[in-house]
Design a protein that fits this description.
This protein is α+β, with helices and mostly antiparallel strands. The protein has one domain (8-217): START domain (Alpha-D-Glucose-1,6-Bisphosphate, Chain A, domain 4, 2-Layer Sandwich), CATH 3.30.530.20. It is 40% helix and 32% strand. The model has no long low-confidence stretch (mean pLDDT 93). Pfam families: AHSA1.
Length: 218
């Protein structure tokens, strides 16, 4: 049964999905742009080192090896790698996210708010074979970033104002436990809803929802 109840950690993130169908090398593909936006109770200058210094990334995202300056290359957890395309410290970093043969654009933007907090935007654009997108939907890729934002919020106490409770650290143990499974299901439901809003057939969106939940439950 779909999860519809409010979970503070899930509701701390706003989501948007844009999809466009096109043909590449004679086959139909879906260009899916997944945008996650949240407010963090830190300034851009305070957040920037956590996103660009490997020794600080290791504390919440995982081991990142390489050069995160403009023009540099890096390796990230779970076999991902990429190149840094452009940097505007402490507000914007544009890079490639390369995994499973795909080379995707990834944008992270930090916009200051009047109250000293930061609006953090993360946008990952994927080019996916249409049959794969119809099978797994956007959630399979997006939940990875949901978990990353949760880890960043836990590291910084950055959702103190929006969640009004202790933010859990998304360790493998937590993700595999009752609370983690509940949150994965909720994230899957939210991304299925975004897919439907973007024009995806509801039956296909629900298949993607189920596939995402299964994948992250192990």
């Amino acid at each position: 049964m779909a999860v519809t109840e409010s979970l503070p950690v899930v509701d701390a993130v706003r989501r948007e999905l844009e999809i466009h169908e096109q043909v590449q090398d004679g086959r139909p593909v879906v260009r899916a742009s997944m945008t996650l936006t949240t407010n963090i109770t830190r300034s851009p200058a305070q957040l920037w080192p956590l996103l660009t210094r490997p020794e600080l990334l290791a504390g919440w995202f995982g081991p990142v090896v390489g050069d995160l300056r403009e023009g540099g290359a890096f390796e990230a957890p779970r076999g991902a790698r990429g190149r840094v395309l452009a940097v505007e410290a402490p507000h914007r970093i544009s890079l490639t996210w390369e995994h499973g043969g795909s080379i995707d654009p990834l944008l992270i933007r930090l916009d200051p708010e009047d109250d000293g907090t930061t609006s953090l935007l993360l946008r990952h654009t994927r080019l996916v074979p249409r049959e794969e997108f119809e099978r797994v939907g956007p959630g399979l890729g997006a939940v990875h970033w949901e978990i990353a934002l949760l880890a960043l919020a836990a590291e910084t106490d950055g959702w103190r104002a929006s969640c009004l409770l202790d933010v859990p650290v998304p360790t493998p143990q937590w993700l595999g436990g009752e609370q983690g499974i509940e949150h994965v299901r909720a994230w899957s439901v939210r991304w299925a809803a975004e897919a439907i809003a973007a024009g995806v057939d509801e039956a296909a969106a629900r298949r993607g929802e189920a596939a995402t939940t299964r994948a992250y439950r192990g």
